[in-house]
Design brief:
Blueprint (H helix, E strand, L loop, with lengths): L1 E4 L14 H10 L2 E5 L10 H6 L3 E3 L1 H7 L2 E3 L17 E4 L7 H9 L3 E4 L14 H20 L7 E3 L2 E3 L3 E5 L3 H12 L3 E5 L6 H6 L3 E2 L20 H17 L2 E4 L14 H5 L6 E4 L16 E4 L2 E4 L9 H18 L1 E2 L4 E2 L6 H6 E4 L2 E2 L2 H4 L3
Parallel strand pairs: 1-2, 1-4, 2-3, 4-5, 5-6, 9-10, 9-12, 10-11, 12-13, 13-15
Antiparallel strand pairs: 6-18, 7-8, 14-15, 16-17, 18-19
Helix pairs in contact: 1-10, 5-6, 5-10
Length: about 375
Amino acid sequence: MLIGVPKENFPGETRAALNPESAGKLVKLGFDVAVESGLGSASFHSDEEYTKAGAKIDSRENILRNADILLRVRKPSAEEIPQFKKGSIHISFLDPFNEKDLIRAFTQSGITAVSMEMIPRSTIAQKMDALSSQANLAGYVAVVIAAERLKRILPMMMTPAGTISPSRVFIIGAGVAGLQAIATAKRLGARVEAFDTRPIVKEQVQSLGAKFIEIDLGETGQTAQGYAKALTPEQLQKQRDAMTKICSTSDIVITTAQLFGKKAPIIITKNMLAGMKPGSIVVDLAVESGGNVEGSRLNEEVDINGVKIIGLGNLPGRVATHATQMYASNLVNFLTSFWNKDEKTFNLDLTNDILKGCVITHDGKIINEMIKNLK
């Protein structure tokens, strides 16, 4: 069975779906692996490293046409899908809630489409959870970028010239990205506060040395997959009112609030920004799904009355070597779980809970219940 890995062609994408180490693991399992020349150049892996691992370097055209399983980071264009081998499996991030034309193209071409963001957040699927692995890196990068932009240091310093107080960092959302941001800011010596609508994460926040901010919003909680539930407009306003004072004393604010398959909620308004100190930094980790910060713009850094709003997309791509390593490992773990090594076949058991969650199209139909029922 041939696994094909085309080079990413999305503007600015530096990650790859496989690194040489992961390609070698797939070859040892019994897969044939073909990668496009230059696949790992942006993550500092040469073609020679892939060939040493047992992969073959081939043209993009041949890979798309002949691969039984296609691996990539970004979704393909709808125009590219008819080139795929009929009955093949395509695995990548797909954004299936918002890409109706793309999903339709998969069904029309008879392609089995697997969406990596739809991997269930269960214990057994944890090693395949690419959303979490990439969010982990995004949380780290957000703090590093903010620290570089801030015109003051993060840790407390006691020097002969006087004592420097620690910078204050406020992190909104304590999911995977938020928790890594907390840990990174603490390692750099900042005073860290964090808020999440899910009281269940309080202990995790405190275990990292941060102060958990409690705001009584009434009934909140999380979905079955561990995502925060959407707040009512009244709850959102109450949350903003309580956070205004904290933002006004913070040097760095990092927002991570995203709603699965929906537009991100506005958490920081322009009125809240107006109350922040000049020189403060706000990093909007949700900018690619609409943004948490009023006035943030994708792939731009905006200055609003002296407060810098950072809306850079694809933060994991800024640490491409490790982002590729982690994503490739997620893919290998996924493939290994359904690979029959003796018969050299991929067992697409659509009764399996993991596959029921992440397989969007198969045999010319949309089979995922969540996507099928979208209006």
